[in-house]
Amino acid sequence: MCKYNLLVAYLSFITVSEYFMRIEAFRVFDVDGAETILASENENINIECKTDMPMAYCGFIHPTGKRYSFSGSTLNAGHCAIKIKASKNDSGVWRCHIGTQETGLEIMQSIEVRVVTKMAALKQNVTAIHGKPITLSCATTKLTPMSYCRFEPPTGQPFSINSGVTAANPILGRYYFPSNKSLDRGDCAVTIRKVKYEDVGSWTCGAGLEDGKEYIDFIKLDVEGLYTMSTASATGITFGAIGIGAILAVLGFVAWKKRRFLGAVRPDAEETEGHEMEQLPERRTPQRTPQPGRSVPQVTVETPSDPSQSPLMSRTP
């Protein structure tokens, strides 16, 4: 009888253990105030919404738009949930709308469901603030321990990391392992001490599991205000170039007008100088006018037609 009881207790323990392992195989994370569920395909998962006040009603909206209603005694405790068998089509953001005892605006909550293989990023799109710390995380779906954890930044050299790398001894003075994470629990994470613009881009997290394979996922990191600042800089450069071009155009127009004015004045000056030069000889050479009372002798030369009639010839003996 004693052996029978021990056998029943052992089988009950195995059944209960398998039940809880099956139910809790998926993992639920709180990422920046939003709930994220990592689950394996064909796994039964619970999608829950909670409030600190009684609910009048509660409903769920599938990522595709399909709707699910909920009714049960747990509404009075501020809790509603649905159970689904996860598939790839269930991946995405689920929403639940909650009505309270008082009429008015509903309470909306979002839950991101990711149906993955064995390891995945908790958040695939992360936005950081320049100069502030940020944590990038990947995890296994069933608390499967990792043999190693590594990251490949957008620029720079890849690195491996574990709980031995703390804020006191960061890699390259920038990267360290978060104190609330553990490779034994299936966490692969890195905290960037001060985010720089060179950190923007696609990060790869990789983890080695018990099957000897490496599993990877990607995280896109953006810096808040980067594109706004780039747009503002481009706008400033554009307007600056336009302003400089306008100034150069004005200066060129002024120079052209001045040159044209000087070119128009110079021929007149040269023509004036020419007239003055022509008048100078007239001014330097005075005209001689005949004086009154003086006569000018006149000489007349006559050529004789006959030599014998010449007076000179008549005087010869």
From TrEMBL:
The keyword Manganese does not apply. Residues 297-317 have a biased composition (Polar residues). InterPro entries: Ig-like_dom_sf, Ig-like_fold, Ig_sub. It comes from the Eukaryota. Residues 268-285 have a biased composition (Basic and acidic residues). It comes from Trichoplusia ni (Cabbage looper). Residues 34-116, 123-224 form the Immunoglobulin domain. Residues 268-317 are annotated as: Disordered. This is Uncharacterized protein LOC113507691.
